[in-house]
Amino acid sequence: MRRSRLLPLLAAVALVACAPSAVAPGHTPTPDPTPTPSPTPTFLQPDQLPPLTLAGVFPPRDLTALRLDPSRIRTLIATGDVIPARHTDVVIRSRGDDFLYPVAATEEITAAADLTVVNLESPLIEGCPYHDSGFTFCGQPGFAAALQAAGVDIATLENNHVGNYGLEGIYETEDHLTAAGIDHADRITAVVKDVRGLKFGFLAFNGVGETFNRAKVTAQIKALRPQVDVLAVAFHWGAEYVSLPQTAPGVADDDPVEIAHLAVDAGADLIIGNHPHWVQAVELYKGKFIAYAHGNFIFDQMWSYETRVGVIGRYTFYDDVLLKVEFVPTLIEEYAQPVPMRGTEAQAVLDGMRAASDQLAQAVAAR
């Protein structure tokens, strides 16, 4: 009986507790405070980025901690020498003119960039004769399809073999490249590519079998500089089969370091070096990046480990500032096909580049 009498009383108390509280006459209730909105995320500006250093190349710097606007990131890929001649061409022919074989293992990497540039060190000509030896190179016109599949946008034609079949061979090569939608750059022909509103300019010069005309190199760079946001210059230079850039008296008499610095002083943002057939040191000079040699990419030099090795350079820009540099080591198989290296083998190549770069930095500082 006592419990049954308590139930109505408890119900009444519950109703009072749930009812809105009474407001005194003439008193205006204070509204609930409006929540403070979260600040809109702000992206870093290029001049706020930490400067690139060699320690941020080996290993590549991690960008995840930086507040970057993805729409302002653009990538450029450069490879080692591309020479679809001699045994490389023999392999292509032996596979029924399988021109895509040389790029089959790397095309996903090279085609993934906004821009891809290679040094084409062989003319592409109709009737290219079978040759498995010698130093007069040519490739078949069908190789342009391989460059297409690899996503190549620009081929530089300044080197000591592109003229092996004379001016006619060069002109024909240019025609085949144009038909494939690939631009070509040389000492007088600049290429300008627009990547989502940012203009990249390319020039190329050869110093093997001749010397660089410093005045013309400087003038060409200065003339292109106001037209572009990023200016990349490709050089063919230096001694072969060494890990540090140096002269080859009587063959390549110019010091690559001196020429690279001259180009940067004239306005170049990125230097892309080739010819030594070994991967070489890199350098940061006045905040600009210099890759002295990317090694071999597509070539038949299977006679040593060092000549089989190359690196694919991936250069990441945030607007016009080089934000990140990373290298993908490759190893040539079957005289024709570069294959990405993995694990400790790849790391050994990168460690060698870092050691050579440290040695070069010490040598440059001692000049």
Task: Please characterize this protein's 3D structure.
The chain has 367 residues and is an alpha/beta fold. It has one domain: Metallo-dependent phosphatases (Purple Acid Phosphatase, chain A, domain 2, 4-Layer Sandwich), CATH 3.60.21.10. 27% of the residues lie in helices and 23% in strands. The protein has nine helices and 14 strands. The chain has helices spanning 2-18, 86-94, 107-110, 143-149, 166-179, 214-224, 256-266, 305-308, 343-365, and strands spanning 73-82, 115-120, 154-156, 183-185, 191-195, 198-206, 230-236, 270-274, 282-285, 288-291, 296-298, 309-318, 321-333, 337-340. The strands form two sheets. Strands 1, 2, 3, 4, 11, 12, 13 and 14 form an eight-stranded mixed sheet that branches. The protein has a six-stranded mixed sheet with strand order 5-6-7-8-10-9. Strand 12 (309-318) and strand 13 (321-333) form a beta hairpin. Mean pLDDT is 92; it is low at 1-24.
Show unreliable segments: 1-24
User: What is the N-to-C succession of helices and strands?
Assistant: HEHHEHEHEEEHEHEEEEHEEEH
Looking at CATH, the homologous superfamily is Metallo-dependent phosphatases
Number of domains: 1
Please name the CATH architecture: 4-Layer Sandwich
Stated plainly, the CATH topology is called: Purple Acid Phosphatase, chain A, domain 2
Share of residues in helices? 25-40%
- Count of helical segments? 9
Please give the number of β-strands.
14
Through-space gap between termini: 107 Å
